[in-house]
Amino acid sequence: MSRRPTTSRRLADTGSIPFVGSFHPKSRPSPLMSLGLVVGALLIIGYVYHGSGGRSAADALNRLEGGMSCTAELHKALPVLKKAYGDNMRKVLHVGPDTCSVVSKLLKEEDTEAWGIEPYDLDETDSNCKHLVHNGIVRVADIKFPLPYRSKSFSLVIVSDAVDYLSPRYLNKTLPELARVAADGLVILSGYPGQQRVKVAELSKFGRPAKLRSSSWWVRFFIQTSLEENEAATKKFEQAAAKRSYKPACQVFHLKPLLR
């Protein structure tokens, strides 16, 4: 499966300035009209940015597309997770698309080791991501199969934008496998029902549409697969989020590692 293209790439393919391509080639707009169009486009982007509560431009554009990236949300949640888990974030495995960006951010933290699994093909990578892949820090792997790590290899495993594309048939195997390689805990970021995640034209890149499930569905599933929610970690995360006035845009579940 290939990873979905970023919003910015889609915009780049269609032209950077809205409406400019709509003019007839023989008609030459005046400089003042061209300037007005550019200023108008900037004002629209600025309005969307302001309406997003101070979020990045990419987030604002993502909202216009009607989608929600839990991997992008993870970047905002990392300081809260650091506060909640403390030393348990000393050795982290991230599983999800754009894992190179998450791993790079974690590696900037003092006394933190980080690895990543990209569940979709890496179509385009920058030099930093190529370096991480070359050194085996980031791997491309199908998470429907056993992970190439020993049990309890990582203190904390964080998953974003991955489990929503798995059917219960594969979740029954994948989630216990993710919990197997975690020594101190497993954190899952999942979309809320009603959030649009993938357009019809992009379904082939994932193989199936995202299945956004309710929190009650997930709780029942955790019980059925013998996964126990980590109430202590959940409470610490909620307290740290409240202090920072942070409200996650994705569901965040904290699970205990497997006892065996």
CATH architecture: 3-Layer(aba) Sandwich
What is the structural class?
alpha/beta
Elements, N to C (H/E): HHHHEHEHEEHEHHHE
The CATH class is identified as Alpha Beta
| Helix content, binned percent | 40-55%
> How far is it from the N-terminal to the C-terminal residue, by CA?
32 Å
CATH topology value: Rossmann fold
Unreliable spans are: 1-27, 44-66, 200-204
Mean pLDDT value: 77
- Beta strand %: 5-15%
Q: What's the total number of strands?
A: 6
Radius of gyration, taken over Cα atoms and rounded to an integer in Å? 20 Å
Strand count, sense and barrel status of the largest sheet are: 6 strands, mixed
Q: Which strands sit side by side, in order, in the main sheet?
A: 3-2-1-4-5-6
> Looking at this structure, what is the CATH superfamily?
Vaccinia Virus protein VP39
How many helices in DSSP terms?
10
Please tell me the total number of domains: 1
Shape: globular
